[in-house]
Specification:
With 234 residues, the chain is of the alpha/beta class. It folds into 2 domains: 11-87 and 163-172 and 183-234, P-loop containing nucleotide triphosphate hydrolases (Rossmann fold), CATH 3.40.50; 90-160. Helices cover 31% and strands 26% of the residues. The protein contains 8 helices and 10 strands. The strands form 2 sheets. It has a 6-stranded mixed β-sheet with strand order 6-7-8-3-9-10, with helices on both faces. Strand 1 and strand 2 (26-36) form a beta hairpin. Helix 3 packs across helix 4. The longest helix is centred in the C-terminal third of the chain and has 16 residues, at 175-190. Mean pLDDT is 90; it is low at 1-9.
Length: 234
């Protein structure tokens, strides 16, 4: 278990009770109950269309639940979405970057969107960390998928979020990028942040995460074994 550098929060990082979401006649989420403590790392598993991304979007407050209750650090997902967003960082499957801006410009713009002044020095440090310093002033539209994902990872690191939500983050990274991502996740957990990763690759997630939960039929069922058991078996 990773030791925390800060005192645990009095509230769980995530607390969901019978959370559900409907799209038309479909219910990708029917009855999701989950508790995640500060400093925990959870891998969210399930087939395509099982509701993994839907659950992450609800936690990020870009979707409202149809029924059930959910709180992030004690803040209700429906009643206080702005308070939730202050503590959540997202690495979505689609990076959401501006293709006609450079890597540097994307990060400077994100800083301003977060309400902070543009800081060239901190952006340069982040681009160096994700291995893109030589490409800082190139437009994102010419980047490979892996390079684009590295810019998105740098954007995630612009502020120290208390809950990180990542959707299939390993898919575009090479071995070096995967090692960097796991390092980032371990560092986040060490300072007390909770991490939830939707992934089809639990073996890679086992490096930085504690346990896995699976969506089956719109219901979240916790797996019997911790993720670290996968590493021992390899």
């Amino acid at each position: 278990m990773i030791s925390l550098s800060q005192s645990p929060s009095p509230s769980p990082a995530v607390e969901l009770d019978q959370l559900a979401r409907r799209f038309g006649r479909q219910w990708p989420l029917r009855a999701v109950s989950l508790r995640v403590e500060p400093g925990e790392g959870v891998a969210l598993l399930g087939r395509n269309g099982s509701g993994k991304t839907t659950l992450l979007r609800i936690l990020a407050t870009t979707l409202r639940p149809t029924r059930g209750t959910g709180r992030v650090f004690g803040h209700d997902l429906r009643m206080a979405p702005e308070r939730v967003r202050e503590r959540v960082g997202v690495l979505a499957h689609a990076p959401g970057l501006y293709a006609d801006l450079t890597a540097r410009e994307n990060l400077l713009f994100a800083q301003r969107m977060y309400g902070a002044p543009a800081d060239e020095r901190s952006v340069a440090v982040l681009l160096e960390r994700v291995g893109l310093a030589p490409h800082a002033d190139e437009r994102v539209r010419i980047f490979s998928a892996g390079m684009t994902r590295r810019v998105a990872l740098a954007r995630l690191l612009l502020r120290p979020n208390d809950l990180l939500l990542l959707d299939e983050p390993f898919s575009a990274f090479d071995a070096e990028g995967i090692a960097l991502l796991n390092e980032v996740l371990l560092e986040a957990r060490a300072r007390g942040a909770a991490v939830i990763v939707a992934t089809h690759d639990p073996e890679r997630a086992a490096v930085a995460l504690d346990r896995m939960v699976r969506i089956e039929g719109g219901v979240l069922a916790e797996a019997a074994e911790p993720l670290q058991a996968l590493q021992v078996a390899r």
